[in-house]
Design goal:
Elements (H helix, E strand, L loop, with lengths): L8 E6 L5 H13 L5 E8 L5 H17 L3 E5 L4 H12 L4 E4 L11 H10 L4 E5 L7 E2 L3 H18 L11 E4 H6 L8 H12 L4 E5 L2 E2 L10 H16 L9
Parallel strand pairs: 1-2, 1-4, 2-3, 5-8, 6-9
Antiparallel strand pairs: 4-7, 5-7
């Protein structure tokens, strides 16, 4: 599964209730990144995606066409947020995949940094961390912040790594790797799984600092209760055979 070179990136944007946030995300990426480095945007939608969100996607699609960067609309087959991103993995055609959200909680200004790191470490994973700099959480629940800190420390010790933000689903990785791994989770624990399985496979992971700000539109689908469901996949992956981590 070795990837010797970064050629371009497929950016996966699962979209449910984002409109102006979607447009702003795409606009910032196009403004700050070399267009040749972007293979495609993949907007993943479902039957619950709001009409305003579909219109926003089509608006960005026209902008992308003008600069020669494709924006595809993919109707997900697997349910929920994790299923949407996993479906996006399988449709990606770039050398690398960037998983993020179009709600501005994953800062689009970091995309250029991901690309820089992808070119430097094409065979590794790059992940954003909200814990590398103080004051990186804006509008985050105090209860969830304490739990987040606790879980980060616990998972890092449990897996023997020095990563500071294992649960944040803002990552870049080689497409071959992400398409080869068997993904099991469908809801938000999927984003933890996308770090844990590469860790088990001895993939080197680099962190870049990132700021998090609460979304300005729509409601988050990640409830406090789901935070505790991360424990199930953490224990399962830890004790799985490495051969069981791959698709058949």
């Amino acid at each position: 599964m070795e990837t010797k070179e970064f050629k371009n990136v497929s950016i996966i944007l699962p979209t449910l209730n984002e409109s102006f946030s979607f447009n702003q995300t795409v606009d910032i990426i196009l403004e700050e990144c070399e267009h040749k480095d972007i293979k495609e945007f993949i907007a993943v939608v479902c039957d619950r995606t709001l009409p305003d969100s579909i219109e926003a996607i089509k608006k960005s699609q026209k902008v992308c066409e003008e600069v020669g960067v494709p924006l595809h609309i993919l109707y997900q087959k697997r349910p929920f947020a994790g299923g949407a991103v996993a479906d996006g993995f399988m449709k990606a055609t770039g050398s690398h995949i960037l998983m993020m959200a179009p709600d501005l909680e994953t800062d689009p200004h970091n995309v250029k940094d991901f690309i820089t790191m992808g070119k430097r470490y094409p065979n590794d994973m790059v992940t954003a961390s909200r814990w590398l700099h103080k004051g990186s959480f804006a509008g985050y629940s105090k209860v969830k912040l304490v739990l987040n800190f606790f879980f980060q420390k616990m998972f890092a010790v449990f897996y023997g790594v020095k990563l500071t933000d294992i649960t944040f689903g803002y990552r870049l990785a080689p497409t071959k790797l992400m398409q080869r791994i068997k993904w099991e989770e469908l809801k938000h624990p999927f984003f933890l799984e996308t770090a844990l399985k590469p860790i088990r496979l001895k993939v080197k992971i680099h962190e870049i600092p990132s700021n998090w700000a609460a979304r300005q539109e729509g409601e988050s689908q990640n409830s406090l209760l789901q935070t505790f469901k991360y424990l199930k996949i953490a224990f399962k992956v830890k004790f799985e055979k490495r051969s069981e981590l791959f698709n058949d």
